[in-house]
Every structure is written in structure tokens, then in C-alpha cells.
Amino acid sequence: MKDTFKFYLEVFKKTFKSYTDSNVFIESAGLAYSALFSIPGLLIIIIWSAGAFFGEKVVRGEISNQIEMALDRDAARSIQKIIEKAMIDQDGILMKTVGVMTLIFGATTLFFMLQKSLNNLWGIETQPNQAIKKYVMDRINSLVVILIIGLLMVVSMILSTVLSSLNEFITTEFGAETYQMAQIINLGVGFLLVAAIFAIIFKILPDVEIPWKAVYTGALVTAVLFTLGKFLLGYYFENFEPASAYGAAGTVVLIMIWINYSFLIIFFGAEFTKIHAMEKGYKFKPSDHAVWKSQEYANLGKGATSE
What is the DSSP string of the chain? Predict the structure, then answer.
């Protein structure tokens, strides 16, 4: 136990040093700005995919509730209005096709840029002769990640419905004192779904082949930091009302603060995943369409062991 604690303490120290020495603050700010233009397409695609199971109205309501919990009611209303304005209702196949392609391009741009940042973190770049093919594949991978997030939202809504019914049964049959335990289970399921999203991002987006055993630890650490930060930001937004200082732009500022924080956590989690893999001796290498930026990065990916 003592050796394990020392090991992870050392991993965190190295992660923090590498994290602070990098350009993550600049990159996360840039991604937060870009996210404002990707949000409509991103949310609409998630609404379409999850709405196929529950109906778009229900999914939109769930998204609104989650945004209200993370930010505030004004932010939730603003994003709902953005979604309504961006929904495609034009007549004609051509206009609908153009509208859908525009939404997909906008939605995938955010994850496309995130992938570039993660590749930079891993020390990987696209092979020069594979640029066009790689660009198309990156867009497809970004869309796949969005669809998986939509699928996980479906799973989350199903589990929430089941757990809600289970909560009522437990409370009725075993008394109100068991309600807290049921709530803890509900929170635990939500936490695991968040960890699953981070695991998918770390596994699919960067052009690095890394074993799942190196991914899930980083995803869990990221989920813990994200959940903790979500609580602290919620407390900050509720008690200090930072949006009030920006007037009409306050809602946009809140959204950018929250998104910026989310990317900072993702970058820390990705850095932790890389350092943890190196310290464990896990081997990782560029995908078929990518190469190491330098021999130094290539040496890091060789691993000390083959666990």
C-alpha cells in the first residue's frame, strides 16, 4: 500500500510539472472560444441520436437540466434558444443536406481541434503524405465520439429511470433511511458514465495506440477532478455571481469559464494518462497515419516493461 501511494504521488508530481510547463492554458482558452461555435451542432447531433430512443423533447429537457445544474437557469435558457435557432426545418432535400453537413462540420470541429492538442501532448504529428486522408478520418472519428456520447446519454437516461423507480420501491419497502444509499448509487452510476466519456476521448481521439489498461486509470482520475471542479464551480457561480459583472454577456462568460475548466481537466487527465503509462512501462506508439515528432518522444513510448 505504501509503495502504491509513493508511486502515484510521483506520477502526480511529474504530471503536474509537465502540465504546467506546457501550453494547456492557451490551448484550453482557444478551445473554449471555438466551442461557442460548435455547441449548436454538437448538441443537436446528440439530441438527434438520443432522441431516436426517448424523443427529442425529452432529451432537450435533460440537456437543459444538466446545464442548469452546472451553470444556472439563464445559461440553460440561452442554450435552448441557440438549439431552437439551429434546428433544421428548411424544405427541400438540398437545403436539409447542406444544413446537416454544416452542423456536422461545426460539431466535429471542436473534437478535431481537441485531437490536435492531444496529439501535441503525446508528441505525435500527421504523416506529411497522409494529410488529406487523415483529415477525413479525423472528422469521422470526431463524429463517432459525438455519437458515442449520445449513446451514453441514452444509457444514462435509462439508468436514471430504472434507479428512480428503484428508489421509490426501496423507500416504500425499507423506509426513508435507505433513500440516501439509493442516491449514492445514482451518483456512482453518473460518475462511471463521465469516466467512460473521458476514457473514450483518451482512447479514440489522439493518434496513439495505447492499451485500455493505461486509459481507464487516467479516465477515473479525470472524472474525479471533473466532478470535484463541477461542484466547486457551481458553488462559485451560485454564491459570487461572476456573470453579473459582464451584463448581457454574462451567460456567455459563464459558459466559456465552464468549458475552459473542462478542457483544463481533460488535458491534465491526458497528461496523467501518458505519465502513468510511462511509469508503468506500458508501450504506446503512433497510429498508422501518424509519426513521432522526435526521437525523444519515440523513446518515451517504448515502455520499460510489457505489462
Answer: -HHHHHHHHHHHHHHHHHHHHTTHHHHHHHHHHHHHHHHHHHHHHHHHHHHHHH-HHHHHHHHHHHHHHHS-HHHHHHHHHHHHHHS---SSHHHHHHHHHHHHHHHHHHHHHHHHHHHHHHTEEE-GGGHHHHHHHHHHHHHHHHHHHHHHHHHHHHHHHHHHHHHHHHHHHH-GGGHHHHHHHHHHHHHHHHHHHHHHHHHHSSSEE--HHHHHHHHHHHHHHHHHHHHHHHHHHHHH-GGGGGGGGHHHHHHHHHHHHHHHHHHHHHHHHHHHHHHHT---EE-TTEEESSHHHHHHTT-S---
pLDDT score for 307: 40
Choose among 196, 195, 197, 190: nearest CA to 163: 190
Q: What pLDDT was estimated at residue 305?
A: 43
Specify the pairing of strand 124-126 against strand 290-292. Answer: antiparallel
Residue 167 Cα to chain centre, angstroms:
29
For cell 461572476, the residue is: 242
Which amino acid would we find at residue 225? L
State the DSSP string of 127-174. Answer: -GGGHHHHHHHHHHHHHHHHHHHHHHHHHHHHHHHHHHHHHHHHHHHH
Q: How confident is the prediction for the chain on average, in pLDDT?
A: 83
**Grid coordinates in use for 5?**
501511494
pLDDT digits (tens, 9 = 90+) for 59-108: 888 888 888 887 778 888 888 888 887 776 655 676 667 777 888 888 88
pLDDT digits (tens, 9 = 90+) for 125-166: 888 777 788 888 888 888 888 888 877 777 777 777 777 777
